Amino acid sequence: MQPLFIYNTVTRKKEEFKPINPPFVGFYVCGPTLYSDVHIGNCRTFTSFDIMYRYLLHLGYKVRYVRNITDVGHLEDEVAGEGEDRIGKQARIKQLEPMEIVQRYSFGFREVMSLLNTLPPSIEPTASGHIPEQIEMIENIIKNGFAYVEDGNVYFNVEKFAEANNYGILSGRSIEDQLNNTRDLDGQQEKKGRLDFALWKKAKPEHIMRWKSPWSIGFPGWHIECSAMSQKYLGNTFDIHGGGMDLIPTHHTNEIAQSVGCCGQAPVNYWVHTNMLTLNGQKMSRSLGNVFLPVELFTGKKLSSNSPSATPSQAILEDKHPLFDKAFSPMAVRFFMMQTHYRSTLDFSNEALTASEKGFERIIDAFKTLQNLTSSNSSSEDIKALQQKCYDAMNDDFNTPVLIANLFDAVRIINSCNDKKLNLTQNDIEVLKTIYNDFVFNIMGLKLEEANNKANNVLDNVVNVLLNMRNQAKTDKNFTLSDEIRNKLIEAGIQIKDSKEGSTWKLN
Fold it and tell me: Under CATH, domain 7-274 is a member of which superfamily?
């Protein structure tokens, strides 16, 4: 099996991946909070973990991939654990049941993830479906002396925990530093410490989602759900936990504290985090007007303010989006995301997306060319070495940018062989096909969209008719007509290449 190295946020270095119980791998990723439409940051995070999941499967591991859905307990003030429940607030605004809100946005989330060709997780548990498990975990934390009850609320005692444990092991921040940078908040006199966070909240009269517990009729805090569900499906300690880097300071830090407070052991061996997004070098924010939804990126159009949904299949769209010159297909967007390492900031721009789109087309065009390559008795290239370079890239903390660079080397080899500039044996050609199947389609998860396939088939037929007319014109020595057809095709964005075997074409 290929040796895989993963960057561990806890140790801040790459470590060789050694599963607890090989070939089995426990893999947990914090999923979406479904109070609004899935945003492009979600897409980058879940696409990154999809590639990791795919690669682990490719290496032969039996992976249990758990990705939760937060449908309760995520309050407006995440740090303080106060304010309205985000889903409950949306339910009140839209005059719907909270589970209607969850259902609406979960449908949209899954549709976008499907368009990006992400594999579904092995298990997709919801917070509301695991209230008993969360209550049981809270009871154990109280019993172990790391939580206390105040007026029906249960809080985790961070300073008590920090007496014998490193509360900042993930963030790298000492508890003193965290205390110095935490403000006193009104209405939290019942909390013993400023860093203490809610495990269970007593429901106010207007709070819709509520359950019975030993302490009050209320609802769980946001952080406890992931600890309880990961423990249930993956055990007290499992292999990999992933999420966006924005979860490090609070959510994941508190997950670790809860799990250690409950079970007395570290819950995860490898913590993995994806970086953030920018647009034209700027942080995305509504105040700057540079926030966009996946459906807007895929269509190049602005979502109508009257649209009942941002789901691609249901969205009502207006005219051209002010941020984009054109629409970009989900596969072009997926490829674009992979051109930046998951731990680096991903900067969206029209120029970068367009360049990435062309790069994706080059790789697909070379695959089509590969199917008809003529073999030789000898080889000019070491294709096995190229295949290992692809593995080396993925084994180096899932380094997709380096993998793509190696795939472009494969494109060069394929095109040069097609142009008779180098030789490949039949075995070389078969290895190149394996590289495409393994790395482009199975691991990177790229594909040609069905709609595009239909359009491509129609375009292919039309262009071939014109090329046949051009060839006949050349045979008839009607060079004026031949040149006119060629020039019109070029004007339409179609590149013609003539060779002894005939004429071929591709989009510029």
Answer: HUPs (3.40.50.620)
